[in-house]
Design goal:
The complex is a heterodimer of chains A (91) and B (326). With 91 residues, chain A is mainly α. Helix content of chain A is 68%, strand content 0%. Chain B is α/β, with parallel strands linked by helices and 326 residues long. In chain B, helix 10 links the parallel strand 7 and strand 8. Chain B contains 11 helices and 8 strands. The chains are: A mainly alpha (91), B alpha/beta (326). Chain A binds chain B through residues 1-3, 21, 25, 28-29, 32-33, 35-36, 39-40, 42-43, 46-48, 50-51, 57-71, 73-74, and chain B through 89-90, 93, 96-97, 100-101, 107, 109-110, 113-114, 116-118, 120, 122-123, 126-127, 129-130, 160, 163-164, 167-168, 170-171, 174-175, 177-178, 181-182, 184-185, 188-189, 191, 198-199, 202-203, 205-206, 210.
Chain lengths: 91, 326
Amino acid sequence: MADKDQPRKGGIFQVFKDIVYGMSSHEMTRHAVRSRASMEHLFILITMGDLLGVPILPPYYALRLLPYVTPQIATWKRRMLRERDITDTLG
Amino acid sequence: MSLRDVFERQPQRRYIMFGGKGGLGKTTLSATCAYWLARQGKRVLLFSVDPQASLSDIFQKDIFGKGAVPIIENLWAQEIDADKRIQEYQDEIRKKILDMYGFDRVPEEIESYIASASAEPAMEESAIFDAVVDIIVKGDYDYYIYDLVPLGHALYYLSMAKVYDEWINKITKLREEMGQYDRVAATLRRQEKVEEDKILEELRYIKSRINTSSQILTDKQKTAFFFVLAPEEMIILDTRKAAELFARFDVPISGYVVNRVLPQELRRDNIPTYLKNRIQLQEKYLGEIRNSLGGQILAYVPEMERDVTGLPMIERLAGQLFENSR
């Protein structure tokens, strides 16, 4: 996770903090990041839906946002068009 | 009240629109009004939001896609070239993608989206809508006169501001919610800074532009919307319906201008039956207009003996409309 890049200091105390983080907040962080990613895909759907054949208004202003979502388009399309089964709801 | 009174008594009304069915003289009246205001020493920009603009025809000068072209002292006219604007806009988007990610060409999928989005029928109107915001935001003129598209289209244009407004509000809200998750994750990870959301910035920019446009269209203090009609049955009916629809979009209707009124002096002469009947019929419809609109009628514009094109004709009509209106 993001902590990897941060310089380690504080020795044993830092290790203790990391363990507490891992036990308590890590799961919450993961959840927040995952929710954020889902919303990102929802956002692209309502602005760039045309890419999947869902007509969206108004294309003129949607184009302004296109450069910012360009890198995510491929994963977004995969996720949106993927077939779903029972394991998705369990997962 | 006459058309002149409206301008003299309400000088704060800087955005002037003439609406009405096709072929009733909206462009003629817009040009005449712009001409008269410029002659009064006001700086006026007359611009067309019609993809099939006819300002070039009325001023007998090719102004299409050339920006604000000076016509006489204090008067400029502009016809927006939507295709050119769309092209420039697409290039701007492509360049942004290349610059942001260091690609040497736009990914195929993205390129085809850019191309297909631009082929949407709404694209041309949106481009003009955006160009108008550009013109207005600059604020270089005392008066902005819109040469509007025919009724159905004008309604579409007006509703566009409303639809955009709702669309942009919804997605801005969603984007802000996404920002909350970013902040939660950042706090849990003890990061001090959350990366700025460029998309949210962009959305706020779009929002401010749409708001500018929709505020002007519905601002009773700054905007005057005049309906142009003619003494004919269908036109009266359509105008009545349109007025109701415009009121629904909160467009402030400032009054009506009756165009194409056959001149009084025709009545005296020994005229053919055909013309006599036409005059009688028109008299009947003028009566109807007077009864239903009464005090809201600002001017009766006579049918001229030739087309109103070129500055001498516009000047003549301005005289009739602003100096001798009854």
